[in-house]
Amino acid sequence: MIEYRNIRIALLGAGSVGSQVAGLLIEHRDELAARVGTGLDLVGIAVRDPQRPRDPRIPEALYTTDAESLILGADIVIELMGGLEPARELLLLAMNSGADVITANKALLATHGPELFAAAEQVGAQLYYEAAVGGAIPIIRPLRDSLAGDRVERILGIVNGTTNYILDRMHSQGDSVQEALAEAQRLGYAEADPTADVEGFDAAQKAAILASLAFHTAVPLEAVHREGILGITLEQVAAAQRSGFVIKLLAVCERLTDAERGIDGVSARGHPALVPAAHPLASVHGANNAVFLQAEAAGSLMFYGAGAGGLETASAVLGDVVSAARRHVVGGPGVAESTHADLPALPIAMVTTRYQIGMEVLDRPGVLAQIALVLSDHGVSVETVQQTAAGAEAAAPAATRVIGTHAATEAALAATVHALADSEVVSAVTSVLRVEGVS
Ligand code: HSE
């Protein structure tokens, strides 16, 4: 019997995930070889600064600054350097030179996915990215393979651990958003520059990736509506708790069809939302991630676990390494992106959702009727009303009122909020949050 030669693996980047991937490739060498059917040789690790102190498990001779030469001698290239360039160029080089590629780079996939997938298809290379969404959680393969025969209808994902940690702390400890962010930074969840997480860029990128896979359609990042969490207040958290909700930053991906309105497309968005306290996503605490998915035949599924962390994310990368390497040895069908549906990515104005609108109102007879009139003028109906009287120190009789709406189009809801802000009985609209996870 002919023995397959060892497979040469090049690693680009030796940060927290990269060094764990290298460490596991070295420590689990024999077991991985048994699973693959041949040895996996880590032939080099491209880094910017080879002098930096590194993981003691990794021989220093593996480090190089010459990423291109390393790539040209590899069968599998793992990109864990992050950023758009030179990651994009190096992955294209790797595929053009005959290597399969693995990446955890969600920004790169969300921005240049179509170009990279087209290049992979053109040259017959495999492009794997299980670690790009949800860290250790298997979600790419379930969407691409296990659910390939079903119709995904909707995804609600907690896909950013840093913001989940911050919001969870606001709920459980009463920290302000800034206090919770400082704690997240102290614990190493949030970066020194936390913009990508707290402004929702990271969640939006992951929403684009999930929606593209789920709906067999290339969803461009520009089509993903994005809102961050820095505007979330403790008053909103308290109001959410009073009405049986928690606030979560969600990636929401939906298949939208409405023959009457002539709608047939997909929507992807990332924003804070109210989730019922009894919903499975409400019990996702700390920096954990979870993806709750509804499919026509499968019904509801939830995937839960560590969304970040060097070792945890390395698990997902190693899964891709074994898949790619086994294909070298035993062959078999490869992975390819399926974009056959080619549906339009619809703007948020066309989405149907529910709002909770918090406002300061005059506390006098007829106010509720006037507010209800504003809503009905915009085709929005009231589902719930809560009122809290202001303290005795208020200059005029005033109250905080929270209106929960039935489902309506975003366009109608946004116009309603404007009209309420202009209404003479409303002194201020203090909070507008979408409600998700209510059937
Ligand atoms: N910064 C991300 C998070 C982890 O906080 O979840 C990597 O995607």
Characterization of this structure:
This protein is an alpha/beta fold and 439 residues long. It has three domains: 7-135 and 311-330, Rossmann fold, CATH 3.40.50; 142-305, Dihydrodipicolinate Reductase, domain 2; 351-435, Alpha-Beta Plaits, CATH 3.30.70. It is built from 14 helices and 17 strands. It has helices spanning 16-27, 29-36, 67-72, 87-96, 106-123, 140-146, 161-173, 177-186, 195-198, 201-215, 234-242, 310-330, 367-377, 410-422; strands at 7-12, 40-46, 63-64, 76-79, 100-103, 127-128, 152-158, 225-226, 245-258, 263-276, 288-295, 299-306, 352-362, 382-389, 398-405, 408-409, 426-435. The strands form two sheets. Strands 7, 8, 9, 10, 11, 12, 13, 14, 15, 16 and 17 form an eleven-stranded mixed beta sheet that branches. Helix 4 packs parallel to helix 5 (106-123) and helix 7 (161-173) crosses helix 8 (177-186). The protein starts with 6 loop residues before the first strand and ends with a strand. The model has no long low-confidence stretch (mean pLDDT 95). L-homoserine (HSE) binds at residues 160-162, 197, 202, 307-308. The site of L-homoserine has 7 residues, from helix 7.
- Which quaternary structure do these chains form? single chain
Report the helical percentage.
25-40%
Distance between the termini: 58 Å
| CATH architectural type of the largest domain | 2-Layer Sandwich
Rg over CA atoms = 25 Å
Could you report the average pLDDT, rounded to the nearest whole number? 95
Number of helices: 14
The CATH superfamily of the largest domain turns out to be Dihydrodipicolinate Reductase, domain 2
Structural class determined from secondary elements:
alpha/beta
Small-molecule binders: L-homoserine
The number of distinct structural domains comes to 3
* Unreliable residue runs: none
Number of strands: 17
From the spread of the alpha carbons, the general shape counts as elongated
CATH fold field value of the largest domain: Dihydrodipicolinate Reductase, domain 2
Largest sheet: 11 strands, mixed
**CATH class wording of the largest domain:** Alpha Beta
Strand proportion, as a percent range, falls in: 25-35%
